[in-house]
Amino acid sequence: MSETIELNLAVLIDADNAPRTAMKEIMEEIAVYGNPTIKRIYGDWTAPNMNSWKPILLENAITPIQQYAYTTGKNATDSAMIIDAMDILYSQRVEGFVLVSSDSDFTRLATRLREAGMKVYGMGEKKTPQPFIASCDKFIYIEIIRDAAQQVENPTPRKNNSQQLGRSNIPKKTVNLIALSLADIADDDGFGALAALGNLLSKKQPDFDSRNYGYSKLSTMIESIDRFEIKKERSSMYIRDKYAK
Q: pTM of the predicted model, to two decimals?
């Protein structure tokens, strides 16, 4: 069995557009995707409203990068973060980037990094504009990360997923996206590997995440939909669309 190669990641955080109360959860989520070897956050640290960041940065070993706000209404932080990202890109020290922001100004940066062969993960709030989301390989909503952490810390009595969420709460367009993606990877018997399906769903829709619909895993989400059949073989899972011809 081949070993999984862990990506070295550069984590770049826009302090003006990242919630400081969720930073611990954000860093824990990043560890799922790779090893954060560079962790930097950008802002004007001389501003009084930035003082509350200090204990958070120390706790998570994040390096603050000073960028003065030269002009009112202009975000100098964006420029500093973009310049640093390109310097890191050309240093060839990482294989991927995590851009933590809800600002569409980083859309072109994400696109450029992917053009250079980098894996790009975006993390932002649900208000994040669609162009930035689409420019990333995968986009994770911070609200989902925070809610998942709170559920672990304050668990509620467990119900099965059909009772908790209801099949009707998975939009038809999402079910169709799963079915179409499954058709793209299915073998002659109509089965497709769950891992390959998950990868393809993220490519087609970067913000696709089973947690957006109340499920901790893609397999659990698909099991709740009558349309799909699941087959387990050793450590692998395979999915088939019952309606496929």
A: 0.78
